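Hi support team,

I'm filing this because I wasn't sure whether my run with adenosine-5'-triphosphate finished correctly. The job status page said complete, but I'd like someone to confirm that the output block is well-formed before I use it downstream. Pasting the exact inputs I used:
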Amino acid sequence: MKTPALFQRSELMGALWAFRREFCIVGLFSAVSNLLMLTPTIYMLQVYDRVLVSQSELTLLAVSLICLFLFGIMAIAEWTRSRVLVRAGVRLDEQLGTRVFNASFESYLGSSGASPARAFGDLLQVRQFLTGQGLFAFFDAPWAPIYVAVTFMLHPMLGMLAIVFACIQVALAWFGHRHTVAPAEAASRAASEVAVYLQGKLRNSEVLESMGMVDNLRHRWRERHQDFLTKNGQAQAVNNRVTAWSKFIRYSQQSLALGAGALLVIDGQLSAGGMIAANVLMSRALAPIDMLVGSWRGFVSARAAFERLEDLLQQFPERDPALSRVAPRGQLQLQAVFAGAPGRDTPILKNIGFTVEPGTVVAVLGPSGSGKSTLARVMVGIWPDVTGDVLLDGLPLGGWNRLELGPHLGYLPQDVELFEGTIAENIARFSEVDSDKVIDAARCAGLHEMILRFPKGYDTPIGEAGGMLSGGQRQRIGLARAVYGDPAMVVLDEPNANLDEPGEAALMNTVAQLKAKGKTVFLITHRPGAIGAADHLMILNNGVLVANGPRDAVIGALKQQSAQSQASEPPHPPLTPQPA
Ligand code: ATP
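And here is everything the job wrote out:
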Protein backbone atom coordinates (compact mmCIF):
# COMPACT_ATOMS: atom_id res chain seq x y z
CA MET A 1 0.00 0.00 0.00
CA LYS A 2 1.29 3.46 -0.83
CA THR A 3 1.95 5.80 2.07
CA PRO A 4 0.02 9.08 1.78
CA ALA A 5 2.33 12.01 0.99
CA LEU A 6 1.55 13.63 4.35
CA PHE A 7 2.93 10.63 6.22
CA GLN A 8 5.85 10.05 3.93
CA ARG A 9 9.16 10.44 5.72
CA SER A 10 11.99 12.36 4.16
CA GLU A 11 15.13 10.40 3.45
CA LEU A 12 16.83 11.77 6.55
CA MET A 13 13.81 11.14 8.77
CA GLY A 14 13.64 7.65 7.29
CA ALA A 15 17.28 7.08 8.25
CA LEU A 16 16.53 8.22 11.81
CA TRP A 17 13.32 6.19 11.94
CA ALA A 18 15.46 3.10 11.38
CA PHE A 19 16.97 3.80 14.80
CA ARG A 20 13.65 3.81 16.65
CA ARG A 21 14.56 0.63 18.53
CA GLU A 22 17.74 2.26 19.80
CA PHE A 23 15.84 5.37 20.85
CA CYS A 24 13.30 3.19 22.73
CA ILE A 25 16.15 1.44 24.53
CA VAL A 26 17.68 4.80 25.44
CA GLY A 27 14.26 5.94 26.72
CA LEU A 28 13.93 2.80 28.83
CA PHE A 29 17.38 3.09 30.36
CA SER A 30 16.82 6.80 30.93
CA ALA A 31 13.68 5.89 32.89
CA VAL A 32 15.63 3.41 35.01
CA SER A 33 18.46 5.82 35.67
CA ASN A 34 16.14 8.74 36.46
CA LEU A 35 14.02 6.72 38.86
CA LEU A 36 17.13 5.47 40.60
CA MET A 37 18.30 9.05 40.99
CA LEU A 38 15.83 9.17 43.87
CA THR A 39 18.08 6.72 45.71
CA PRO A 40 20.32 9.32 47.42
CA THR A 41 17.23 11.17 48.66
CA ILE A 42 15.62 8.06 50.08
CA TYR A 43 18.95 6.98 51.57
CA MET A 44 19.34 10.34 53.25
CA LEU A 45 15.83 10.14 54.69
CA GLN A 46 16.54 6.67 56.01
CA VAL A 47 19.85 7.67 57.58
CA TYR A 48 18.56 10.83 59.24
CA ASP A 49 15.12 9.72 60.26
CA ARG A 50 15.60 6.03 60.91
CA VAL A 51 19.23 5.07 61.47
CA LEU A 52 20.16 8.07 63.60
CA VAL A 53 16.95 7.75 65.60
CA SER A 54 17.20 3.97 66.13
CA GLN A 55 21.04 4.02 66.38
CA SER A 56 20.98 0.67 64.53
CA GLU A 57 24.23 -0.18 62.73
CA LEU A 58 22.65 -3.19 61.09
CA THR A 59 19.94 -1.01 59.50
CA LEU A 60 22.65 1.36 58.30
CA LEU A 61 24.56 -1.53 56.72
CA ALA A 62 21.45 -2.91 55.02
CA VAL A 63 20.33 0.47 53.73
CA SER A 64 23.88 1.25 52.49
CA LEU A 65 24.18 -2.08 50.65
CA ILE A 66 20.81 -1.59 48.93
CA CYS A 67 21.88 1.92 48.05
CA LEU A 68 25.18 0.73 46.54
CA PHE A 69 23.37 -1.94 44.56
CA LEU A 70 20.95 0.62 43.12
CA PHE A 71 23.84 2.96 42.27
CA GLY A 72 25.47 0.08 40.41
CA ILE A 73 22.32 -0.46 38.35
CA MET A 74 22.10 3.26 37.67
CA ALA A 75 25.69 3.33 36.42
CA ILE A 76 25.05 0.34 34.15
CA ALA A 77 21.88 1.99 32.78
CA GLU A 78 23.72 5.22 31.99
CA TRP A 79 26.67 3.42 30.45
CA THR A 80 24.37 1.26 28.33
CA ARG A 81 22.38 4.18 26.95
CA SER A 82 25.60 5.99 26.04
CA ARG A 83 26.92 2.91 24.30
CA VAL A 84 23.70 2.38 22.36
CA LEU A 85 23.79 5.95 21.12
CA VAL A 86 27.48 5.90 20.21
CA ARG A 87 26.96 2.76 18.13
CA ALA A 88 23.86 4.25 16.55
CA GLY A 89 25.93 7.33 15.67
CA VAL A 90 28.56 5.25 13.91
CA ARG A 91 25.86 3.38 11.98
CA LEU A 92 24.10 6.61 11.06
CA ASP A 93 27.35 7.96 9.71
CA GLU A 94 27.94 4.81 7.71
CA GLN A 95 24.42 4.99 6.29
CA LEU A 96 24.42 8.63 5.39
CA GLY A 97 28.11 9.40 4.80
CA THR A 98 28.19 8.22 1.19
CA ARG A 99 24.84 9.80 0.37
CA VAL A 100 25.85 13.16 1.80
CA PHE A 101 29.23 12.92 0.08
CA ASN A 102 27.66 12.31 -3.34
CA ALA A 103 24.85 14.82 -2.92
CA SER A 104 27.19 17.55 -1.70
CA PHE A 105 29.53 17.03 -4.65
CA GLU A 106 26.61 17.17 -7.06
CA SER A 107 25.34 20.32 -5.39
CA TYR A 108 28.79 21.90 -5.45
CA LEU A 109 28.77 21.75 -9.24
CA GLY A 110 25.99 24.33 -9.17
CA SER A 111 27.72 27.54 -8.18
CA SER A 112 25.17 28.17 -5.42
CA GLY A 113 25.69 24.72 -3.94
CA ALA A 114 26.82 23.94 -0.43
CA SER A 115 30.41 22.93 -0.10
CA PRO A 116 31.01 19.28 0.78
CA ALA A 117 32.87 20.48 3.88
CA ARG A 118 29.77 22.21 5.16
CA ALA A 119 27.52 19.27 4.40
CA PHE A 120 29.85 17.04 6.40
CA GLY A 121 29.97 19.61 9.18
CA ASP A 122 26.17 19.43 9.25
CA LEU A 123 26.16 15.66 9.37
CA LEU A 124 28.70 15.73 12.20
CA GLN A 125 26.60 18.23 14.12
CA VAL A 126 23.44 16.16 13.77
CA ARG A 127 25.28 13.02 14.75
CA GLN A 128 27.00 14.62 17.71
CA PHE A 129 23.74 16.00 19.00
CA LEU A 130 21.88 12.74 18.58
CA THR A 131 24.56 10.70 20.25
CA GLY A 132 25.72 13.11 22.94
CA GLN A 133 24.62 14.81 26.12
CA GLY A 134 22.21 17.01 24.17
CA LEU A 135 19.83 14.14 23.52
CA PHE A 136 20.07 12.86 27.10
CA ALA A 137 18.75 16.21 28.26
CA PHE A 138 15.59 15.54 26.23
CA PHE A 139 15.23 12.07 27.68
CA ASP A 140 15.85 13.24 31.24
CA ALA A 141 13.75 16.40 31.22
CA PRO A 142 10.37 14.60 31.36
CA TRP A 143 11.43 13.15 34.73
CA ALA A 144 11.77 16.52 36.40
CA PRO A 145 8.05 16.54 37.37
CA ILE A 146 8.57 13.28 39.29
CA TYR A 147 11.20 14.89 41.48
CA VAL A 148 8.94 17.89 41.97
CA ALA A 149 6.09 15.53 42.90
CA VAL A 150 8.28 13.81 45.52
CA THR A 151 9.28 17.23 46.85
CA PHE A 152 5.57 18.02 47.12
CA MET A 153 5.12 14.81 49.09
CA LEU A 154 7.79 15.98 51.54
CA HIS A 155 6.06 19.34 51.89
CA PRO A 156 3.80 21.27 49.48
CA MET A 157 5.61 24.53 50.19
CA LEU A 158 8.90 23.02 49.06
CA GLY A 159 7.18 21.65 45.97
CA MET A 160 5.86 25.11 45.14
CA LEU A 161 9.32 26.55 45.64
CA ALA A 162 10.75 23.99 43.19
CA ILE A 163 8.13 24.95 40.60
CA VAL A 164 8.82 28.65 41.04
CA PHE A 165 12.55 28.14 40.52
CA ALA A 166 11.97 25.87 37.53
CA CYS A 167 9.80 28.58 35.94
CA ILE A 168 12.41 31.25 36.61
CA GLN A 169 15.09 29.09 35.04
CA VAL A 170 12.98 28.34 31.96
CA ALA A 171 12.17 32.05 31.59
CA LEU A 172 15.83 32.94 31.86
CA ALA A 173 16.72 30.29 29.30
CA TRP A 174 14.10 31.61 26.93
CA PHE A 175 15.35 35.16 27.39
CA GLY A 176 18.94 33.98 26.84
CA HIS A 177 17.94 32.06 23.75
CA ARG A 178 16.13 35.02 22.23
CA HIS A 179 18.99 37.38 22.87
CA THR A 180 21.99 35.19 22.16
CA VAL A 181 21.00 33.23 19.06
CA ALA A 182 21.14 36.10 16.58
CA PRO A 183 24.53 37.52 17.71
CA ALA A 184 26.00 34.00 17.99
CA GLU A 185 24.87 33.14 14.46
CA ALA A 186 26.18 36.45 13.13
CA ALA A 187 29.54 35.79 14.81
CA SER A 188 29.79 32.29 13.39
CA ARG A 189 28.86 33.54 9.90
CA ALA A 190 31.53 36.23 10.18
CA ALA A 191 34.08 33.66 11.35
CA SER A 192 33.38 31.37 8.42
CA GLU A 193 33.59 34.34 6.01
CA VAL A 194 37.04 35.16 7.37
CA ALA A 195 38.11 31.53 7.01
CA VAL A 196 36.83 31.29 3.43
CA TYR A 197 38.50 34.57 2.53
CA LEU A 198 41.83 33.45 3.92
CA GLN A 199 41.63 30.04 2.31
CA GLY A 200 40.93 31.58 -1.10
CA LYS A 201 43.89 33.90 -0.80
CA LEU A 202 46.26 31.19 0.42
CA ARG A 203 45.57 29.25 -2.74
CA ASN A 204 47.00 32.16 -4.70
CA SER A 205 49.82 32.92 -2.31
CA GLU A 206 52.48 32.87 -5.04
CA VAL A 207 50.73 35.60 -7.00
CA LEU A 208 50.19 37.67 -3.88
CA GLU A 209 53.78 37.38 -2.73
CA SER A 210 55.42 37.97 -6.10
CA MET A 211 53.52 41.16 -6.83
CA GLY A 212 53.57 42.54 -3.30
CA MET A 213 49.78 42.28 -2.94
CA VAL A 214 49.86 40.83 0.57
CA ASP A 215 49.61 44.15 2.34
CA ASN A 216 46.65 45.33 0.28
CA LEU A 217 44.76 42.16 0.99
CA ARG A 218 45.65 42.27 4.67
CA HIS A 219 43.60 45.47 5.00
CA ARG A 220 40.59 43.72 3.53
CA TRP A 221 41.10 40.71 5.77
CA ARG A 222 41.47 43.03 8.78
CA GLU A 223 38.06 44.60 8.04
CA ARG A 224 36.43 41.21 7.96
CA HIS A 225 38.28 40.07 11.04
CA GLN A 226 37.27 43.21 12.89
CA ASP A 227 33.67 42.54 11.96
CA PHE A 228 33.98 39.02 13.39
CA LEU A 229 35.58 40.34 16.60
CA THR A 230 32.78 42.87 17.11
CA LYS A 231 30.03 40.33 16.54
CA ASN A 232 31.75 37.77 18.69
CA GLY A 233 32.16 40.33 21.46
CA GLN A 234 28.44 41.15 21.32
CA ALA A 235 27.49 37.47 21.50
CA GLN A 236 29.87 36.90 24.40
CA ALA A 237 28.54 39.90 26.32
CA VAL A 238 24.94 38.69 26.17
CA ASN A 239 26.01 35.17 27.01
CA ASN A 240 28.01 36.29 30.03
CA ARG A 241 25.10 38.30 31.35
CA VAL A 242 22.74 35.33 31.07
CA THR A 243 25.29 33.00 32.67
CA ALA A 244 25.79 35.35 35.60
CA TRP A 245 22.04 35.58 36.20
CA SER A 246 21.70 31.85 35.91
CA LYS A 247 24.40 31.31 38.55
CA PHE A 248 22.73 33.80 40.87
CA ILE A 249 19.44 31.95 40.58
CA ARG A 250 21.01 28.54 41.11
CA TYR A 251 22.85 29.55 44.27
CA SER A 252 19.79 31.40 45.58
CA GLN A 253 17.64 28.36 44.95
CA GLN A 254 19.98 26.05 46.89
CA SER A 255 20.20 28.31 49.90
CA LEU A 256 16.58 29.41 49.92
CA ALA A 257 15.40 25.81 49.67
CA LEU A 258 17.50 24.93 52.70
CA GLY A 259 16.23 28.03 54.52
CA ALA A 260 12.62 27.17 53.74
CA GLY A 261 13.22 23.61 54.91
CA ALA A 262 14.76 24.88 58.16
CA LEU A 263 11.71 27.07 58.71
CA LEU A 264 9.48 24.05 58.33
CA VAL A 265 11.67 22.03 60.74
CA ILE A 266 11.46 24.81 63.33
CA ASP A 267 7.72 24.82 62.81
CA GLY A 268 7.71 21.07 63.34
CA GLN A 269 6.25 20.37 59.91
CA LEU A 270 9.31 18.58 58.54
CA SER A 271 12.06 16.29 59.87
CA ALA A 272 15.74 17.23 59.56
CA GLY A 273 16.19 14.35 57.12
CA GLY A 274 13.27 15.67 55.06
CA MET A 275 14.88 19.11 54.96
CA ILE A 276 18.17 17.81 53.54
CA ALA A 277 16.44 15.35 51.22
CA ALA A 278 14.19 18.08 49.85
CA ASN A 279 17.22 20.23 49.15
CA VAL A 280 18.94 17.46 47.20
CA LEU A 281 15.71 16.61 45.43
CA MET A 282 15.12 20.17 44.31
CA SER A 283 18.59 20.39 42.79
CA ARG A 284 17.89 17.09 41.05
CA ALA A 285 14.58 18.37 39.73
CA LEU A 286 16.21 21.42 38.26
CA ALA A 287 19.24 19.60 36.85
CA PRO A 288 17.47 18.26 33.69
CA ILE A 289 16.02 21.71 33.06
CA ASP A 290 19.50 23.13 33.47
CA MET A 291 20.85 20.54 31.07
CA LEU A 292 18.09 21.22 28.59
CA VAL A 293 18.85 24.91 28.75
CA GLY A 294 22.56 24.18 28.30
CA SER A 295 21.99 22.00 25.26
CA TRP A 296 19.32 24.20 23.70
CA ARG A 297 21.76 26.04 21.51
CA GLY A 298 23.20 22.71 20.36
CA PHE A 299 19.66 21.59 19.60
CA VAL A 300 18.90 24.71 17.56
CA SER A 301 22.05 24.43 15.47
CA ALA A 302 21.60 20.66 15.07
CA ARG A 303 18.04 21.32 13.87
CA ALA A 304 19.28 23.89 11.35
CA ALA A 305 21.97 21.45 10.18
CA PHE A 306 19.31 18.74 9.93
CA GLU A 307 17.11 20.97 7.77
CA ARG A 308 20.03 21.88 5.49
CA LEU A 309 20.90 18.21 5.07
CA GLU A 310 17.29 17.36 4.39
CA ASP A 311 17.16 20.01 1.67
CA LEU A 312 20.39 18.76 0.16
CA LEU A 313 19.27 15.13 0.04
CA GLN A 314 15.89 16.11 -1.33
CA GLN A 315 17.43 18.24 -4.04
CA PHE A 316 19.87 15.53 -5.06
CA PRO A 317 18.05 12.24 -4.65
CA GLU A 318 19.86 8.97 -4.82
CA ARG A 319 20.26 7.73 -8.37
CA ASP A 320 18.31 4.57 -8.89
CA PRO A 321 20.84 1.70 -8.76
CA ALA A 322 18.40 -0.33 -10.87
CA LEU A 323 19.11 2.12 -13.68
CA SER A 324 22.22 0.19 -14.50
CA ARG A 325 22.86 0.39 -18.23
CA VAL A 326 25.00 -1.32 -20.76
CA ALA A 327 28.30 0.37 -21.56
CA PRO A 328 27.69 3.24 -24.01
CA ARG A 329 29.28 3.20 -27.44
CA GLY A 330 29.83 6.94 -27.45
CA GLN A 331 27.11 8.45 -29.63
CA LEU A 332 26.39 11.93 -28.33
CA GLN A 333 23.31 13.90 -29.22
CA LEU A 334 22.39 17.39 -28.10
CA GLN A 335 18.91 18.67 -28.85
CA ALA A 336 17.88 22.30 -28.32
CA VAL A 337 20.34 22.71 -25.47
CA PHE A 338 20.47 26.00 -23.60
CA ALA A 339 22.94 26.48 -20.76
CA GLY A 340 22.55 29.32 -18.28
CA ALA A 341 24.33 30.55 -15.20
CA PRO A 342 23.24 32.47 -12.10
CA GLY A 343 23.49 36.22 -12.54
CA ARG A 344 23.24 36.10 -16.34
CA ASP A 345 20.23 37.33 -18.27
CA THR A 346 21.11 35.51 -21.47
CA PRO A 347 22.09 31.86 -21.76
CA ILE A 348 25.75 31.00 -22.35
CA LEU A 349 24.81 28.35 -24.92
CA LYS A 350 21.86 28.92 -27.19
CA ASN A 351 19.90 26.23 -28.95
CA ILE A 352 22.78 23.84 -29.55
CA GLY A 353 21.93 20.71 -31.47
CA PHE A 354 24.12 18.04 -33.08
CA THR A 355 24.71 14.31 -33.28
CA VAL A 356 28.17 12.81 -33.18
CA GLU A 357 28.65 9.14 -34.00
CA PRO A 358 31.08 6.87 -32.12
CA GLY A 359 34.65 7.00 -33.42
CA THR A 360 34.42 10.62 -34.55
CA VAL A 361 37.03 13.22 -33.62
CA VAL A 362 35.40 16.61 -33.31
CA ALA A 363 37.40 19.82 -33.04
CA VAL A 364 35.47 22.61 -31.33
CA LEU A 365 36.70 26.08 -32.19
CA GLY A 366 35.59 29.56 -31.31
CA PRO A 367 36.80 32.85 -29.88
CA SER A 368 37.52 33.24 -26.20
CA GLY A 369 34.31 33.38 -24.13
CA SER A 370 32.20 31.82 -26.89
CA GLY A 371 31.09 28.97 -24.59
CA LYS A 372 33.45 26.11 -25.52
CA SER A 373 34.28 25.12 -21.95
CA THR A 374 30.63 25.38 -21.00
CA LEU A 375 29.77 23.05 -23.88
CA ALA A 376 32.44 20.62 -22.63
CA ARG A 377 30.85 20.60 -19.17
CA VAL A 378 27.38 20.14 -20.63
CA MET A 379 28.64 17.17 -22.66
CA VAL A 380 30.05 15.42 -19.60
CA GLY A 381 26.92 16.23 -17.61
CA ILE A 382 28.35 18.53 -14.95
CA TRP A 383 26.79 21.85 -15.93
CA PRO A 384 23.92 22.40 -13.51
CA ASP A 385 21.68 24.78 -15.44
CA VAL A 386 20.81 23.01 -18.69
CA THR A 387 17.59 22.74 -20.64
CA GLY A 388 17.13 20.53 -23.69
CA ASP A 389 18.37 16.98 -24.13
CA VAL A 390 21.87 15.65 -23.77
CA LEU A 391 21.73 12.01 -24.85
CA LEU A 392 24.47 9.44 -24.68
CA ASP A 393 23.59 6.50 -26.92
CA GLY A 394 20.07 7.93 -27.05
CA LEU A 395 19.62 7.96 -23.24
CA PRO A 396 19.62 11.12 -21.11
CA LEU A 397 22.99 11.72 -19.49
CA GLY A 398 21.31 13.01 -16.33
CA GLY A 399 19.60 9.66 -15.72
CA TRP A 400 22.86 7.81 -15.33
CA ASN A 401 24.20 6.84 -11.98
CA ARG A 402 27.28 9.05 -11.88
CA LEU A 403 29.48 6.33 -10.37
CA GLU A 404 28.56 4.03 -13.19
CA LEU A 405 28.87 6.63 -15.93
CA GLY A 406 32.26 7.94 -14.78
CA PRO A 407 34.42 5.12 -16.21
CA HIS A 408 32.80 5.59 -19.64
CA LEU A 409 33.73 9.26 -19.81
CA GLY A 410 37.07 11.00 -20.01
CA TYR A 411 37.34 14.71 -19.25
CA LEU A 412 40.36 16.96 -19.23
CA PRO A 413 39.33 20.40 -17.99
CA GLN A 414 41.17 23.57 -18.85
CA ASP A 415 42.57 23.93 -15.33
CA VAL A 416 43.93 20.48 -14.72
CA GLU A 417 43.42 19.57 -11.07
CA LEU A 418 45.43 16.64 -9.84
CA PHE A 419 45.01 15.30 -6.33
CA GLU A 420 47.44 14.41 -3.60
CA GLY A 421 48.65 10.88 -4.28
CA THR A 422 50.96 9.03 -6.61
CA ILE A 423 51.05 9.43 -10.39
CA ALA A 424 49.54 5.96 -10.76
CA GLU A 425 46.70 6.76 -8.36
CA ASN A 426 45.92 9.96 -10.22
CA ILE A 427 45.89 8.25 -13.59
CA ALA A 428 43.73 5.44 -12.19
CA ARG A 429 41.23 8.06 -10.95
CA PHE A 430 41.87 6.89 -7.38
CA SER A 431 40.15 3.59 -8.01
CA GLU A 432 42.05 0.42 -7.28
CA VAL A 433 45.23 0.79 -9.34
CA ASP A 434 45.29 -1.65 -12.25
CA SER A 435 48.92 -1.43 -13.39
CA ASP A 436 48.23 -2.63 -16.93
CA LYS A 437 45.47 -0.09 -17.46
CA VAL A 438 47.59 2.68 -15.93
CA ILE A 439 50.51 1.91 -18.23
CA ASP A 440 48.17 1.66 -21.24
CA ALA A 441 46.71 5.08 -20.42
CA ALA A 442 50.18 6.59 -19.91
CA ARG A 443 51.37 5.07 -23.20
CA CYS A 444 48.29 6.37 -24.98
CA ALA A 445 49.07 9.84 -23.62
CA GLY A 446 52.75 9.45 -24.64
CA LEU A 447 53.78 9.71 -21.03
CA HIS A 448 55.21 6.32 -20.14
CA GLU A 449 58.88 7.12 -20.76
CA MET A 450 58.64 10.44 -18.98
CA ILE A 451 57.10 8.82 -15.91
CA LEU A 452 59.83 6.20 -15.80
CA ARG A 453 62.38 9.01 -15.51
CA PHE A 454 60.74 10.23 -12.27
CA PRO A 455 62.54 9.12 -9.08
CA LYS A 456 59.92 6.55 -8.11
CA GLY A 457 58.33 6.07 -11.52
CA TYR A 458 54.57 5.58 -11.29
CA ASP A 459 54.75 5.65 -7.49
CA THR A 460 56.12 9.19 -7.40
CA PRO A 461 53.93 11.31 -5.13
CA ILE A 462 52.90 14.45 -6.94
CA GLY A 463 52.27 16.63 -3.90
CA GLU A 464 49.15 18.58 -3.17
CA ALA A 465 47.33 19.59 -6.39
CA GLY A 466 50.19 18.15 -8.42
CA GLY A 467 52.44 20.92 -7.16
CA MET A 468 55.63 19.00 -7.94
CA LEU A 469 54.96 18.88 -11.68
CA SER A 470 55.35 21.39 -14.47
CA GLY A 471 52.25 22.75 -16.20
CA GLY A 472 52.83 20.55 -19.27
CA GLN A 473 53.42 17.44 -17.14
CA ARG A 474 50.23 18.08 -15.18
CA GLN A 475 48.30 18.43 -18.39
CA ARG A 476 49.63 15.18 -19.77
CA ILE A 477 48.90 13.27 -16.59
CA GLY A 478 45.42 14.76 -16.77
CA LEU A 479 45.20 13.44 -20.32
CA ALA A 480 46.28 9.95 -19.22
CA ARG A 481 43.64 10.11 -16.49
CA ALA A 482 41.02 11.08 -19.08
CA VAL A 483 41.80 8.11 -21.31
CA TYR A 484 42.25 5.62 -18.43
CA GLY A 485 40.12 2.51 -18.90
CA ASP A 486 39.27 3.31 -22.54
CA PRO A 487 36.20 5.49 -22.00
CA ALA A 488 33.65 5.67 -24.81
CA MET A 489 33.75 9.45 -25.01
CA VAL A 490 36.63 11.78 -24.22
CA VAL A 491 36.28 15.55 -23.92
CA LEU A 492 39.55 17.46 -23.94
CA ASP A 493 39.32 21.16 -23.13
CA GLU A 494 42.39 22.88 -24.57
CA PRO A 495 44.63 19.88 -23.90
CA ASN A 496 47.51 21.52 -25.73
CA ALA A 497 47.51 24.82 -23.86
CA ASN A 498 50.72 24.01 -21.95
CA LEU A 499 52.32 21.60 -24.38
CA ASP A 500 55.47 22.06 -26.41
CA GLU A 501 55.82 20.64 -29.92
CA PRO A 502 56.68 17.07 -28.91
CA GLY A 503 53.88 17.25 -26.36
CA GLU A 504 51.42 18.33 -29.04
CA ALA A 505 52.62 15.60 -31.38
CA ALA A 506 52.05 13.08 -28.56
CA LEU A 507 48.55 14.49 -28.07
CA MET A 508 47.74 14.06 -31.77
CA ASN A 509 48.98 10.51 -31.47
CA THR A 510 46.67 9.97 -28.47
CA VAL A 511 43.72 11.30 -30.43
CA ALA A 512 44.57 9.02 -33.36
CA GLN A 513 44.74 6.01 -31.04
CA LEU A 514 41.38 6.87 -29.48
CA LYS A 515 39.86 7.21 -32.93
CA ALA A 516 41.32 3.87 -33.97
CA LYS A 517 39.63 2.30 -30.94
CA GLY A 518 36.29 3.76 -32.03
CA LYS A 519 36.06 6.34 -29.24
CA THR A 520 34.34 9.69 -29.61
CA VAL A 521 36.73 12.57 -29.01
CA PHE A 522 35.92 16.24 -28.54
CA LEU A 523 38.96 18.44 -28.89
CA ILE A 524 38.44 22.00 -27.79
CA THR A 525 41.31 24.05 -29.03
CA HIS A 526 42.64 27.36 -30.21
CA ARG A 527 45.53 25.88 -32.17
CA PRO A 528 44.98 25.24 -35.88
CA GLY A 529 47.46 22.32 -35.74
CA ALA A 530 44.92 20.24 -33.84
CA ILE A 531 42.32 20.61 -36.58
CA GLY A 532 44.31 18.21 -38.74
CA ALA A 533 43.42 15.35 -36.41
CA ALA A 534 39.67 16.07 -36.59
CA ASP A 535 37.01 14.53 -38.84
CA HIS A 536 34.42 17.02 -37.80
CA LEU A 537 34.49 20.73 -37.06
CA MET A 538 32.21 22.77 -34.84
CA ILE A 539 32.52 26.52 -34.50
CA LEU A 540 30.92 28.35 -31.62
CA ASN A 541 30.38 32.07 -31.57
CA ASN A 542 28.70 33.86 -28.71
CA GLY A 543 27.09 30.62 -27.55
CA VAL A 544 25.67 29.74 -30.97
CA LEU A 545 26.86 26.86 -33.12
CA VAL A 546 27.65 28.75 -36.32
CA ALA A 547 29.28 25.88 -38.21
CA ASN A 548 29.02 22.15 -37.78
CA GLY A 549 29.95 19.42 -40.21
CA PRO A 550 32.73 17.31 -41.72
CA ARG A 551 36.05 19.12 -41.41
CA ASP A 552 36.79 19.70 -45.08
CA ALA A 553 33.25 20.82 -45.83
CA VAL A 554 33.32 23.36 -43.00
CA ILE A 555 36.77 24.64 -44.00
CA GLY A 556 35.62 24.88 -47.65
CA ALA A 557 32.51 26.80 -46.65
CA LEU A 558 34.57 29.14 -44.47
CA LYS A 559 37.02 29.79 -47.30
CA GLN A 560 34.16 30.49 -49.67
CA GLN A 561 32.55 32.82 -47.16
CA SER A 562 35.76 34.77 -46.63
CA ALA A 563 36.40 35.00 -50.40
CA GLN A 564 32.85 36.32 -50.91
CA SER A 565 33.17 38.86 -48.16
CA GLN A 566 36.51 40.02 -49.56
CA ALA A 567 35.00 40.40 -53.02
CA SER A 568 32.03 42.38 -51.73
CA GLU A 569 34.21 44.69 -49.60
CA PRO A 570 34.69 48.17 -51.13
CA PRO A 571 38.29 48.90 -52.20
CA HIS A 572 40.38 50.64 -49.52
CA PRO A 573 40.28 54.40 -49.81
CA PRO A 574 43.66 55.84 -50.72
CA LEU A 575 45.79 56.50 -47.66
CA THR A 576 47.16 59.85 -48.89
CA PRO A 577 44.81 62.61 -49.90
CA GLN A 578 44.43 62.85 -53.68
CA PRO A 579 44.85 66.20 -55.34
CA ALA A 580 41.47 67.54 -56.36
P1 ATP B 1 38.08 30.38 -23.43
O1 ATP B 1 38.46 30.03 -24.83
O2 ATP B 1 38.62 31.72 -23.03
O3 ATP B 1 38.36 29.33 -22.44
P2 ATP B 1 35.33 29.55 -23.67
O4 ATP B 1 34.87 29.62 -25.07
O5 ATP B 1 35.73 28.24 -23.14
O6 ATP B 1 36.49 30.62 -23.43
P3 ATP B 1 33.45 29.63 -21.49
O7 ATP B 1 34.46 29.41 -20.42
O8 ATP B 1 32.55 28.54 -21.84
O9 ATP B 1 34.17 30.19 -22.80
O10 ATP B 1 32.57 30.90 -21.08
C1 ATP B 1 31.55 31.38 -21.90
C2 ATP B 1 30.84 32.54 -21.22
O11 ATP B 1 30.18 32.04 -20.08
C3 ATP B 1 31.78 33.62 -20.76
O12 ATP B 1 31.17 34.86 -21.08
C4 ATP B 1 31.85 33.47 -19.28
O13 ATP B 1 31.93 34.72 -18.64
C5 ATP B 1 30.54 32.81 -18.96
N1 ATP B 1 30.65 31.87 -17.81
C6 ATP B 1 31.43 30.78 -17.77
N2 ATP B 1 31.29 30.15 -16.59
C7 ATP B 1 30.39 30.87 -15.88
C8 ATP B 1 29.80 30.75 -14.58
N3 ATP B 1 30.12 29.76 -13.78
N4 ATP B 1 28.92 31.68 -14.20
C9 ATP B 1 28.58 32.69 -15.01
N5 ATP B 1 29.08 32.86 -16.25
C10 ATP B 1 29.97 31.98 -16.68
